[in-house]
Amino acid sequence: MSTDVPYASRPSARDVIVLRPSTGWLGWDLRELWPYRELAFFLVWKDVKVRYKQAALGAGWAVIQPLMLMLVFSVFLGHFAKLPSDGLPYPVFTLAALVPWLYFTSAIGGSAECLTSNVNLVSKIYFPRLLLPIAATVGPLVDFSIAMVVLVGLIIVYGVTPSIGLVALPALLLLACATAFGAGTLLAALNVRYRDFRYVVPFLIQFLLFATPVAYSAQLVSGDANVLLGLNPMSSVVEGFRWAMLGTGAPPLAGVCVSVGVALVSLVSGLVYFQRVERTFADII
Fold first, then answer.
1. Of 285, 202, 212, whose CA–CA distance to 255 is shortest?
2. What does the alpha-carbon distance between residue 50 and residue 91 come to, in Å, rounded to a whole number?
3. At the N or C end, where does the chain have fewer CB atoms within 10 A?
4. CB 187 within 8 A of CB 113
5. Are 197 and 191 in contact, with CB atoms under 8 Å apart?
């Protein structure tokens, strides 16, 4: 019996999709992401839904978490330890830092786990894997927006006047997103090959909390140490948010420049390493 396929049923050249390695910027052809924009939207939506699935309070946790941390810091560090708060009420001083900080921790934690938590998706179909850390970075912006409303309400209650730095808020948020995305992309790729990183990420976040002026004033760090503080981009983000929302002193320019440089290095390093090992994800995940 002949096994030849009739000519009419053979696939034409237009029906054949050939996947080739990317050859664009840093190995990425960024134009490849555009046709998958709807998938990116649904990944973000899935991330938001899963976060509050079967949660009795739902999105209320986006309000409860920063408020509870603000309360703990205010009681133990503001009231008992008497840490300075740049002449501002300690609750609003702390919450202005917790809003961008909690976004960062949520984004970097979600990015680090985005590949291993989507094993079936990664191993069975093709799509630009970079969409997963992108979705993990964008999704927490929903919680960030809710927390910002709470912060604005507290500012009104305490009668604090924002500064002209409000115009810099989009740039500060972009710096936080770039830092979280760069570090998260690198950690996501490392977590596929070395599962130890699931334990490293919580420790890293705890360490960065103490290295970031969230519960204390950056004024306690003086001189050349301010530039060293800038090695942590979230320090500049936190100081910038307080400057914009509460009218405190602007973060030092030298520290901001160092933070931007570190964020760019983190972003490029994360993208390069992710691209180098992306083709192995489906085999070892």
1. 212
2. 30
3. N
4. no
5. yes
